[in-house]
Amino acid sequence: MAAKPTVSNPVHRKFSVKKIIIWTILSILFVTQVYPLLWLLLYSLKTNQEILDGQFFALPNLIQWSNFKDAYVSGNYLKYLFNSILVTGFTMLFTIFFSTMAAYAIARFRFRLSGVVMLVFMVGIMIPIQSTLLPLMIIFKNIDILNTYLALIIPYIAFSIPLSIFILTGFMKGIPHEIEESAIVDGASIFRLFRSVILPITVPPVVTVCILTFISVWNEYIMAATFISSEKYKTLPFGVYSFFSQYSTNYSAIGAYLVLGALPVLVVYFTLSEKITSGMVAGAVKG
Question: Which CATH class for the 77-286 domain?
Fold first, then answer.
């Protein structure tokens, strides 16, 4: 009995080609994202001479752990770290406080100008930071808050709220109205309804907003350099300038300091990366 000829499955072949293309694109994206981190890590473990030789991916002849000690001591790491944590923490707290209430009002209250209010907040996403530096400088000087934590916290909150409202509004629009109606029948006020019913449901997008705010504020430099000149209030990005002098530059310590500065962001991001994805997807689907 003759064997049946084998026939290739075009669907399977098409699926395989599609999978190869997807994995190729993902691999390229992965390499482009990991490349700066790998380069920075090798940079931080070399001597100045090895760095100036220009061999970017060459391994150090002898690992220079002393670079991290220099970065920690000479870069005022703890002092600037405290300032960064303080500014970022208050920014996240007030961003969540204001954006959750605004998003709830836009998404759940029925009033004519809800679309206009949402549009006003969305315009904030399109305003570049650079265009606000001069007017903010004048305003902060007039109210005497330059060289204070408020000079950073206030604009950080203002620029974080529009994106936060966008994410939270999309999620809250998908919450069934029956949940609120049941709570109202039981005698819950608006504030009790918001605090006890809505907020627990919106934990995934709230966590997403927290992480995105943290990442955007942690390494922000333009506003910090414009509004802060006192050593007392400087944040982590300023520590890099501790290693520049008139006649020399400690490139090794700069690399180590950048690694120390990026470490908290990487830890927070990779620890809570699933929360970011679930929050963004939930907001997109329900919105």
Answer: mainly alpha
